[in-house]
Amino acid sequence: xxxxxxxxxxxxxxxxxxxxxxxxxxxxxxxxxxxxxxxxxxxxxxxxxxxxxxxxxxxxxxxxxxxxxxxxxxxxxxxxxxxxxxxxxxxxxxxxxxxxxxxxxxxxxxxxxxxxxxxxxxxxxxxxxxxxxxxxxxxxxxxxxxxxxxxxxxxxxxxxxxxxxxxxxxxxxxxxxxxxxxxxxxxxxxxxxxxxxxxxxxxxxxxxxxxxxxxxxxxxxxxxxxxxxxxxxxxxxxxxxxxxxxxxxxxxxxxxxxxxxxxxxxxxxxxxxxxxxxxxxxxxxxxxxxxxxxxxxxxxxxxxxxxxxxxxxxxxxxxxxxxxxxxxxxxxxxxxxxxxxxxxxxxxxxxxxxxxxxxxxxxxxxxxxxxxxxxxxxxxxxxxxxxxxxxxxxxxxxxxxxxxxxxxxxxxxxxxxxxxxxxxxxxxxxxxxxxxxxxxxxxxxxxxxxxxxxxxxxxxxxxxxxxxxxxxxxxxxxxxxxxxxxxxxxxxxxxxxxxxxxxxxxxxxxxxxxxxxxxxxxxxxxxxxxxxxxxxxxxxxxxxxxxxxxxxxxxxxxxxxxxxxxxxxxxxxxxxxxxxxxxxxxxxxxxxxxxxxxxxxxxxxxxxxxxxxxxxxxxxxxxxxxxxxxxxxxxxxxxxxxxxxxxxxxxxxxxxxxxxxxxxxxxxxxxxxxxxxxxxxxxxxxxxxxxxxxxxxxxxxxxxxxxxxxxxxxxxxxxxxxxxxxxxxxxxxxxxxxx
Length: 739
Description:
The chain is mainly α. The protein has helices at residues 25-34, 39-48, 53-66, 83-105, 109-125, 142-154, 164-174, 187-191, 195-209, 215-228, 230-235, 243-257, 263-296, 300-311, 329-334, 340-349, 362-366, 379-393, 409-421, 437-445, 454-468, 471-474, 490-506, 518-532, 551-563, 573-583, 607-617, 624-637, 641-652, 658-666, 673-692, 694-715, 717-723; strands spanning 21-23, 323-324, 327-328, 427-429.
């Protein structure tokens, strides 16, 4: 594609071009060390550390280890998949597992709860592979929009209580399984997650880190997991998506591949992912069945042994004065190779378990309120110890020896071995080197292939935020913004928003009496286009799995969903801006394409603001406050005079006004994005005050406001130039940079 050829709409992309994944050498070393971690540690790293290139490198290795290569899925490379055949294959897999799932659902409550806890990590993370499928590199793909529409619904369409994670959690609680949030450091322990569960979950998390690079696989995984419906079967719940609706994604994907140069390979990649899910779900159901059988076979002695094994590593050295046989209790429990059978034999005969004259035994008194071990064991564990003590007191002999729980261990070792020996050939270890703004922008858009750029992105974001603080004292002179600092209260924020809206955006408006010539209008739209082509990007990583607990997360996620049309291509802002440019005969390559590096339609000096926006978006954990402030600035900017003048100019030459009109409506300060953006800040800081107090609110607020100021910094370039030379706040200047 040459520099002047635009990509055609609708965007029928089904995969992005294969390319190396570039990481820094340091990330390579860190990833190699992390691969030696236990599966649970790997899971937690992938979930909790979402801003690190090391995590992304681990994700690439896991995907390579799990995804079957050509011919490794039991199929034939020459086969041409169609939607009906795929649906039939998944239906057969579902039927083959139906009896096992039904048997697991009908277990006795105690065993069923154990099984459901084990399954909970996978049940609660279902759909995470769609978290960042919508991003600058993939929008406005037809397939991506279909997936994103379902993602929006999976997360509750703006109301978390309608979303699948919430419904799954309520279903589990209704069956007696209560767990902390999935990002909680103790989640896996309380779920009693086996290594196989942790590894399966790690694969799905890995796919969620690189969905643009593995779009065919995301399509296959999404369909197969939900169409199989293992979690619905285990809890007796209705499917969130009817199968025909899920199948529409497959049908649309296959239809798009018919016109893609890589169509045949994309279809095979999707099918291999479907078959991988079939394998994983069979594997996991088999593990759950094995787990249930192990638990049902446990004698009372064995149940106690299981409790001991579960808590031993947390015992510490506080039992130095207690002896068990000829060893100190602390030595028994501190032994990483604890012989549970030998320990149980000594424990059963110990003085701690012998009946006392007062009734009961010393151990039972120690775990009751006031005892030194109170609170260590839950109610069910305490009841098991009580029953065991009563059996000992009654003179009942020791029951069969403890049988270790090995459910899923064989499969887990196979996956761990595959991860350890897998070395993807498309990984390159290199530093980015010197980059001009075009090259930097290209890398940021295609960040999945250039994670080595993340440290530079962080530096650029921090520098932009630091520079913007000059407007804390000079911001009142802005033409469209007022970034002058003020102490936060909810009322003060809403008053500032109202004053900006009235004094700077609405009251100055007068219809243009002279319309610039056609070329000038087109050039003006080009200056907007650079930012419009990444519309919403600042929030595209908000509300990923592990980032959904605050009301502000859901609110900001909903704003991004609106920018993307909630999956409706006709309302997708990236589609709309390309339509507007096409009405002016301006045809651009997609911003992800190499050809965009050479395009000569958009001015070079406007890359900085787009770079700043993407840089912010890549750090939604550590720059969360700044993103909230930036969001307020950009959502207010398009209201009033500026937008109305653009509509007037476009209409004069019969250009498409849809983009301008959509923002004038959706961003309104009454109930639209502008007001919502202020409400998001109020909601977030209300949580800060309740959790950390008023002093913390002002600290958090200062960061939010510098996010707003960083937006104003690019808009008010004339003001900034003056501020850098004058200590006193200057008068308003007209902007010479629009976005």
